[in-house]
Amino acid sequence: MNTQQIEMVSVDCLIPEKHPYRKLKETLDFRRLEKVIDIEVSELGATGYTLGRLIMCLVLQFMENLSDRHFERFMGENIAGKWFCGFGLSEKTPDYTTICKFRNRLGLEEIEKLFDAVREQLKEKGYMGEVFTFIDATALISKFAMWEEKDQALSDGYEKFNNEIIEKYAKDKDVRIGAKSKNKFWFGFKKFTSVDMQSGMINKVKVTKANVTDDNHEAVKEILPTQGAVAGDKGFVGAIPTIEESGCHPMIILKNNMLGKDKDKDRFISKLRAPFESVFSKQEKRVRYKGTEKNQAAECLYAIAFNLRRLLVLESASGVA
Asked: Are residues 98 and 243 in the same domain?
C-alpha cells in the first residue's frame, strides 16, 4: 500500500458514519456528473485537479453558500470537505482563482447539464413525480439603488430613468427595473422556478431580465414539468394557455373579476402550495454575478445545492439516515 492509499483510508476513517456528506455519496452517484460534461482534462487549466474533483468542489461550494475566497479556506481546513471532493489530507486543494476559472470554463450549457444529471437521479429514486408542481417568479436584486446612474441620465436630459434607457447607464447591461407594484420595485433580474410538490425540490429554474412579466410565454415554458398539475398565483393567469399547450393541467388562482372564479378552489390551491413557499422565501435574493447567463448558471448551482440539502432532510425524516 503506497502513501496515497494510506492517506485516503485515513481521511475516510475520520468522517463519521452519519455525516451528511457521506449520506449524499451513498444516495447519489456523483460519478455520473462527470460523464455529462464535455470538457477535455487539458482544458481545466489546473494540473492535478481532475474534472470529477472540480465538479464536486463546485457542488460543495454552493451547498455551503461560500464565495470563491471563503471556499478556498474551507477546503484547506475542512477534512470532510476534502473527503467529499476526493482529496487526501495533505493534498493541495484548489485556490479561489481555480474555482472561478473552472466555473467560467464550464459556462451555462455545461452547468445546466450538471443540474439535469442530478435531477434525473432524483427522479429515478422517486423524489420527483411531477404530479403537482408549484411555479413562482421572484426578484433577483443586482443593486438596491442606482442613484448615480439616475442622476447621470437626468443630467443628460432624460426626464425619467426607466427600462428604455437603463442599459445605457448600468454597468450590467442586462439589469432592468422590475416592479411588484407602483411603490415596490427592484434593479436586477427575475427568477422563474418550478417546485415538485411531492418532495419540495426544485425541478427547473429560469433567469430573465427583471421587467419580464410573470406570465411570459417563453419563461413559463422553460420551467414547466413534463406532466401533471401546475399551481400558481394570479400573476400566471396569462400563462394558462402555455400550461395547457404543454400538456399540463393549470391550477392557477384567477383574478377577482374573471369568469369562473371559484374561491373555494383558490383556497385549496393556496393551501396546497403553502408548505413550499419557503423554497422561495429563504433563498438569497442578491446576485453575485453580472449578466443573465451567469446568473442563470449560478441559480442552477443553487438549485442543485438546495435539492441536495432537501434530500438529506427527506432521508432523515424517513428514518434511513
From this structure: no
81 and 227 inside one domain: no
The answer as to whether 292 is a domain residue is no
The answer to whether residues 76 and 178 belong to one domain is no
User: Residue 179 falls within a domain, yes or no?
Assistant: yes
Q: Dump pLDDT digits (tens) for 24-71.
A: 999 999 999 999 998 775 545 555 788 999 999 999 999 999 999 999
Task: State the Cα–Cα distance between residues 207 and 216, nearest whole angstrom.
Answer: 12
- How many domains would you assign to the chain? 2
Q: Quick one: CA torsion of 56, 21, 315, 278, rounded to 10 degrees? A: -70
pTM, two decimals, is 0.89
Beta strand extents in the chain (DSSP E only)? 132-143, 176-181, 184-196, 201-209, 229-232, 249-252
How far apart CA 86 and CA 196 sit, in angstroms, is: 31
What tens digit of pLDDT does each residue of 71-113 get? 999 999 999 999 999 998 888 999 999 999 999 999 999 999 9
State the Cα–Cα distance between residues 60 and 308, nearest whole angstrom. Answer: 10
Per-residue pLDDT, averaged over 280-307, amounts to 90
| Boundaries of domain holding 22 | 3-124
58 found inside a domain: yes
